[in-house]
Structures are given as structure tokens and as C-alpha cells.
Specification:
The chain is mostly helical. Helix content is 42%, strand content 7%. The structure holds zinc ion (ZN) (2 copies).
Length: 108
């Protein structure tokens, strides 16, 4: 299975095509299922609050655009549900707003 290089990922991001990160077989066949399995297909954030919710997304803890080198780093990935994922990014936006940093919309 081909593993995309860091420079390749950087180029996708520069082109606004970070969705390509999620279209690689390396992601769909290996990284994503590994993260989901590690989390028992449950949302890690809900779990930390004692709730059990099915995970829908694999989220980059260090944001993809800022840390493309961690795009496929299993330690940088957690399985989360839709609600928690929304919440993480809202919080993130708010934090950035406070720090007066320009933000682009994230694509999953
Ligand atoms: Zn959740
Ligand atoms: Zn995310």
C-alpha cells in the first residue's frame, strides 16, 4: 500500500485539496479502521464523559493544515461522534477568534 509523502500532503493542502488525505487507500483501508478499532467504534470524547456513542469521524488532534506531517500519525488521531466533532471545531474557531487569527473552513 502506498504511503503518501509529507511533501505530497503539503501540496494537496496548498492546492486546497486536503480532502485527498481522506481518499487515499492508506487512509480508508488502514489508518481509519485502525483508529476506529482502537476506540471500539466509540467516540473517545463521549467515552471520557462516561457516555457510549458511535464514532463517525476520525479527527486530527493537531490540525491537518498546520501539521501535515501528522496527517497519518495514529497518535494524532481520535475517533469522535458528529456532535463532539462539531464542538471541537467550534471551540477551536472561538479560540482562534480570540487570538485574532484568520481561519479557513476545515474540510474533513
Ligand atoms: Zn462524542
Ligand atoms: Zn476534525
Amino acid at each position: 500500500m502506498r504511503i503518501p509523502s509529507a511533501s505530497e500532503i503539503n501540496r494537496w493542502i496548498a492546492e486546497g485539496r486536503e480532502d485527498k488525505v481522506y481518499k487515499q487507500r492508506y487512509w480508508t483501508n488502514l489508518i481509519r479502521p485502525t483508529v476506529m478499532k482502537r476506540c471500539n467504534n466509540e467516540c473517545s470524547i463521549c467515552k471520557s464523559k462516561g457516555k457510549h456513542t458511535k464514532a463517525n469521524y476520525v479527527h486530527h488532534i493537531k490540525e491537518l493544515k498546520q501539521y501535515p506531517e501528522n496527517a497519518y500519525d495514529l497518535n494524532n488521531l481520535i475517533a469522535v461522534c458528529w456532535d463532539c466533532h462539531e464542538e471541537i471545531h467550534e471551540r477551536f474557531k472561538y479560540k482562534l477568534k480570540k487570538e485574532n487569527v484568520e481561519l479557513n473552513d476545515e474540510r474533513w
